Amino acid sequence: MMKLRVSSSPHQRITRDTGAVMRLVMYAAIPGLLAQAWFFGWGVLIQLVLAITICVASEALILTVRKKPVYFALTDYSAVLTGWLIAVSIPPLLPWWMTFIGCAFAIIVAKQLYGGLGFNLFNPAMVGYVVLLISFPAAMTQWTPTTSQNMIQPDFADALHIIFTGFTVSGHDIEQLRFTVDGTTSATPLDYVKTALTQGNTYSESLAHSTFSGGFFDAAGAGWGWVSLAYLAGGLVLLQQRVISWHIPMSLLGGVFVTSLILHMTNGDIFGSPLFHLLNGAVMIGAFFIATDPVSASTTPKGRIIFGAAIGFWVVIIRVFGGYPDALAFSVLILNMAVPLIDYYTQPRTYGHRAKRQSVEQK
Amino acid sequence: MTDFNHVIERLKTNRLWRFPGGVHPEDNKQLSNQVAIERPPLADVLYIPLKQHIGDQGHCIVSEGDHVLKGQALTTTYHPYAVPVHAPTSGTISHIGEHVSAHPSGLTEASITLVPDGLDEWCQLQPHADYMSMDKLKLIEILCDAGISGMGGAGFPTHIKANSRKTIEFLIINGIECEPYITSDDRLMREYAWQIRQGMDILQHIIQPKAVVVAIEDNKPEAIEAMQIACNQKPDCHIVSVPTVYPAGGEKQLIQVLTGREVPGDGLPEDIGTVMFNVGTCFAVADAVCNGKPLIERVVTLTGGGIKQPKNVWAMLGTPVSHLVEYAGLLAPQEEESTIIMGGPMMGFTVGNPLMPVVKITNCLLVPEPNELRQGDNERPCIRCSACADACPASLLPQQLYWHAKAKEYDKAQSYNLFDCIECGACAYVCPSDIPLVQYYRQAKSAIRNERDEKNKAEKAKARFEARKARLDAEKQEREERHRKAAEARLAAAKAKTASADNTASQVEQKSKSAAAAAAIARAKAKKAQQQADVATHTDTPAVDTATTEDARKAKVAAAVARAKAKKAQQTETAHNADAPAADTATTEEARKAKVAAAVARAKAKKAQSKESHFVEEKPAEDKKKKAEAQPDDNVQEDKKARVAAAVEKAKAKARQRAQARQKEQGAEE
C-alpha cells in the first residue's frame, strides 16, 4: 500500500513569497540609495545600516515578548524594508539616538503593537519619520548641501563621528557642515523656495539660487532631481516585475501633477511648476516605494487610484499652503486613515451581479 | 446583454472579450499529450459508486452474486436529476456496500464491487443510426439512460441541460482544458474529432441553437486543427481559439470570453441564451445515440514528474487509482510518501486511498515529483497586497473574504459574495503569504450551508409544531363554541318562559302559547321517557330506572302545572306576578330534568336495541353532533393529506433548487 500525502487545492503556487516581494522592493530601491549616497555622502549608508539594525532588533525583541517564532517572522524582510525607508527619509547626519527613536517607534508601536505585519493601520516607516519630524523639527530639517556644494567635505569617519558624537573628527558640528560654497546655509530645494516666497521673491527668482544649479531641469534641486529619477527607474522595474500595480504610483504622480499644474497656471509667481513638485522632495520614492506599502494602502483597483491621487493632492496642498516644506509622510498617514472607507465604497462588481451600490439601493 | 449578431461578428474575426484576473501557471501539457490514448489491462476489481454525478442517487437493481454483462445498467431511478451507472465490463457483483469515494473528503459511499470475468462481454446494445428523424424527447431519454453527466468536472446530468425550455442562441462546446498538466480533452479532440462532431450534431438537433461555438485554448493548435477539419462542412459552427489563461475553461468565464455576457448571480447559463458541454460529453453523447453504448469509460491523463510514462488512457469507470498509476509506472519507491492528485494542480484533490475509483468526472491523475509543485505550507500573515483580487476571475475581494471567513463572520463573508467564488484557486496560487485561501472559503461555505440546514430544520419543526397547535386550538374552540351555543339555547328557552309570564296581555298570550308548546314537548318527552324506561327496565339497573320513572313523573306533573298556568294566563289575561314565574321556572326546570332523564333513558334504551324509542325531534340534533364530531376527524385527515402534498411539493422544489444550485456551482472545468 502506498503512502499518500493529503493537502488542499491548489497544489501549485508561485514561488514569490512575502520575503521575496520585500527583497525585490529593496533591490529596486538600490539606484535611489546609491544616488542619495553620491549626493549626500556616507551618512546615508551609515544611517541605512543603523536603521535596519534597530528595526530588526526591535522586531526580534517584540516577537520574543509576544512568543512568536522570531526567525520565521524576520525572514519576511518587512522590518528590514521599514528600516531602509526610514534611513533614506531622514537627514543623513541625524544623531544616532534620533534614528533609534524613529525606528524603534515605527516597529514597536506602529507595527507590532497593532498586531504585527499585516495588521498595522499606518505605514510604520512614515509613522517613525513623522514622530521624529514632530519631536525634533530642527534636526529633521538639517540637510547638508549636496557634496558638490559642500564647503567642508565630510568623509566616512567624519560622518560616523558626527552621527554618534555630534562632531566630525576635525570638530565641526552640523551647522558648520551646512555652509555651502557661496557662504549661505543650505536647505532642501522645497525648503528654500518656501522661505524665498515668504521673503517676497517670486518662484522663478528663487530658482536662480545655487540650490538649483546643477540640476538638469531648472526646477529640480541639485542632486535631488537625480535621486528622484533613480527612484523612478527603480519604481518602473517594480512595475515591470509586477511587484506593485500601476494604480497607486501613477495616480499619485498624476495627483501631484494635476494639482500643481492648476495652481501654477493660476499664479506662476507663487506656485511651483509640476516638475518642481515631482522632482523635489519625497514624491518619487513615495509614489513607488512608500505609498505602495500594501498593508496600509487601499486594496481595490478603484480604491488604489483614489488613494494615490488623494496623496498626490495633499502633498502639493501642504507644501504650498501648509507649514512644512514636504508632506509626503503626512499625506500617506492621512490617507491610511481613509483606507477602510475607500475600500468599502470601491468594491468591484462581482461577476453576474449588479454594482454593489445599486443592489443596496434596490433593497 | 450583447446582441447575437454582434457576438457572431466578433467570433468570426476572433475579437473575444476577456474576463478579469486569471493566472498563467506553467501548463506542462507536453508531458502527456505526445502519445495516443492507450488502453490499459483490465483491473482485478472495479468499485462503481452508485452516484457519479450531481443530483440524486439511483437505487441498485442488482444484488451480490449476480453476473452482469458489459453495459448493463446497475441502478435505476425515476428521479429527474439522476442518471444510472452501468457495468464497465462483464463479471460478478461481489459486494454492494460502502467504499471510498472519489471526493476530497475520502469518505465512503454506496458502491458496487465488480470482479471482472475477463470476457468483456457486451449486453444487447441498441444503436440509433438515424437520430435526425427521432423525437427530441426520445433522444433525451437515451442520454439519461446512458448515464451521461458532464465530464468536464461538475458532473451535471447532461439530459437536464439538453432539455432546456429557454431559447438557446449559443451551444458552446468546451475544449479549453485550462488546468495545467491535463490533456485528456486535447488527445480526445486530436484522435476523435469526428465523433465529437457527431455528438455536437445530436445536441444541436435536440437544442436547436442559433449557433455552435467550439472553444479551444491556443496552446492546443493540433486540437484546433482537428476540430476545424471535422467541422469543415458544418454551417453556423465557429471554432474559436481562446487565449491561454487560467481559468478560461470555467463555464462562466468562457461564456464571458465568447459572448461578453455574464451569467446572472441567481441564474443559469440558459437564462442568457447559452448552454455548454464539454468535448468529452459530446463524445459520450455520440456513443450513446449512434452506438447505443452507455457511459462506462473515459479518457484519463496520467501525468506528472513522478510517472515513468505520462500518457492518456481509456479508463473504465470504477478502476482504482493504484491500478492506473502502476500501469503508467511510479518513479518513487513504494515506501516513500507520494502525492496523487485527482484532477489538475489548481482544482484537483489529493487521493488519500489508492483504491479510490475513477468516476465520470475524473480527467487526470497527477503524480508530481517531490519538488515539482510548490505547495507553500508556511502560512504567513496577509500583507493585503491584493494580488488575489487582481487574479480573481469573478472580481471578488478574496482578502476580505479571507478575513471574514477566518473570523467566522459568515454574514459578512456572504455580503462579499462568498458563494460566487468558483474555487478556481487563482487567489491562493498568487498569494505571497502562502495562505490557503480556497480552503478558508470552502470551510466557510460548508459552515454556512450547515447553519442554513440547521435553521431550515428548526423552522420546519417550528412550523410543524405551530400547525399542530393551531389545529388543537381550532378543535378546542369548536368544542367550546358548541358548548356555548347549547348553553345559549338553553338560556333562551328559559328566558322565553320567564318572559311569557312577565309581560303584557298580548305578549302573555303569545308566551303562554309557547309555554304550552313547551309543556306539550315536556309531556311528550315524559311519556316517551316513561315508555323507554319501561322498555329499558329489563337491562337497566333498578336505581336508574326508579330515577327515570320518578323524573318522568315529575316532568308530567310539571307539564300539567305549566298547562294549567298557561290556561290560566290565557283566561285572566293579567299578569300573575307572584305565582307564574315561580311556576314557570319550576316547569322549565322540571322539563329540563325530564329531558336529561329522557336522554339517559334513551341511551339505555338504545343500548337495549329499542330503535322505536328514539325521539324524532332530537335526531337532527344528534346527527349534527355526530357530524361535529366527525368533522375534526375529516379535518385531521384532510389536513394530513394537504400536509403530505405540501411536503412532496416542498421536497420537489428543494430538489429543483438544489440541482439548480449545483448547476450554478459547477467548477471551472465544465
From TrEMBL, chain B:
Places the protein is found: Cell inner membrane
Low complexity: compositionally biased ranges: 489-509, 578-588
EC number: 7.-.-.-
Cofactor: [4Fe-4S] cluster
InterPro entries documented for this protein: 4Fe4S_Fe-S-bd, 4Fe4S_Fe_S_CS, Ion_transpt_RnfC/RsxC, Nuo51_FMN-bd, Nuo51_FMN-bd_sf, RnfC_N, Soluble_ligand-bd
Family, as annotated: Belongs to the 4Fe4S bacterial-type ferredoxin family. RnfC subfamily.
Protein name in the entry: Ion-translocating oxidoreductase complex subunit C
